[in-house]
């Protein structure tokens, strides 16, 4: 969420409502598992985004070191708390903690937190096998996963956000002289927009596979209960804010990372 977006959100959500204090916001992060969602971005960055026109693997251990610095977990949590204090009303914090603090909510958080510690390759492989089985035995379960995704922003929002992050990352990489490609921002946006359908399909597929993996131990009734909780208007406001915070932190860090790529020395195997 850019500075302007934070200001707008503060007007929309906070003008007539009391914002949560910092300690309550920190408790919210722990209860909901959003702290793990934020800090796990470091691992993703260390694996390399591969969107700068050069292979991050070429930088070897230097890439890992820089990613660890830029995506420092404690700093990302503090930035999250800063934005929550600015735009997250106490009413929405309470609503989120009421559900995720419940017995079902805590089991969901435990499963989601564990999922962040599993490699994407494993989640996708095992999730695909589960979805293949569900398609024959329980197709309604797949429909529930799609409804859950739609309730918290959906594929379209994720696609727009990722394209924006790619633009910020690649513009910073080009400005730093760390990319082999050179486009204007308008040209870059046009190129990425032409790939948006393919990106959306990939996001949709990975989302279904990921949900199938993470929630495999939950009953159909529990998945339906979760979907209904996510469709609650207040919970949708919670996720609107959380998604904005997560994408802003991600975009800011990748932009910073790209700007510092020129400081790295490509490594080669001997």
From TrEMBL:
The protein depicted here goes by the name DUF2059 domain-containing protein
Determine the domain of life of the protein's source. Answer: Bacteria
Q: Which organism is it from?
A: Maritimibacter alkaliphilus HTCC2654
Keywords from UniProt, A to Z, are: Signal
Q: Where is the signal peptide?
A: 1-19
């Amino acid at each position: 969420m850019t500075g302007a977006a934070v200001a707008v959100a503060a007007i929309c959500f906070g003008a007539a409502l009391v914002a949560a204090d910092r300690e309550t916001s920190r408790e919210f992060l722990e209860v909901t598992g959003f702290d793990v969602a934020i800090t796990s971005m470091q691992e993703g960055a260390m694996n390399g985004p591969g969107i700068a026109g050069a292979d991050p693997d070429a930088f070897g251990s230097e890439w890992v070191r820089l990613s660890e610095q830029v995506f420092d977990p404690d700093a990302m949590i503090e930035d999250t708390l800063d934005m929550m204090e600015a735009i997250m009303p106490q009413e929405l914090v309470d609503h989120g903690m009421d559900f995720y603090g419940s017995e079902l909510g805590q089991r969901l958080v435990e499963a989601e937190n564990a999922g962040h510690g599993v490699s994407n390759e494993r989640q996708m492989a095992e999730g695909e096998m589960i979805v293949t089985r569900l398609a024959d035995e329980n197709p309604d379960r797949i429909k529930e996963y799609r409804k859950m995704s739609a309730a918290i922003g959906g594929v379209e929002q994720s696609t727009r956000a990722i394209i924006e992050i790619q633009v910020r990352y690649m513009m910073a990489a080009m400005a730093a002289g760390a990319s082999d490609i050179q486009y204007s921002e308008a040209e870059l946006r046009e190129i990425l927009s032409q790939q948006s359908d393919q990106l959306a399909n990939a996001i949709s597929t990975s989302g279904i596979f990921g949900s199938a993996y993470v929630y495999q131990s939950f009953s159909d009734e529990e998945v339906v209960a979760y979907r209904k909780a996510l469709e609650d208007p207040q919970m949708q406001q919670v996720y609107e804010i959380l998604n904005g915070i997560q994408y802003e932190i991600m975009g800011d860090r990748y932009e910073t990372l790209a700007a510092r790529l020129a400081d790295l020395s490509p490594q080669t195997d001997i």
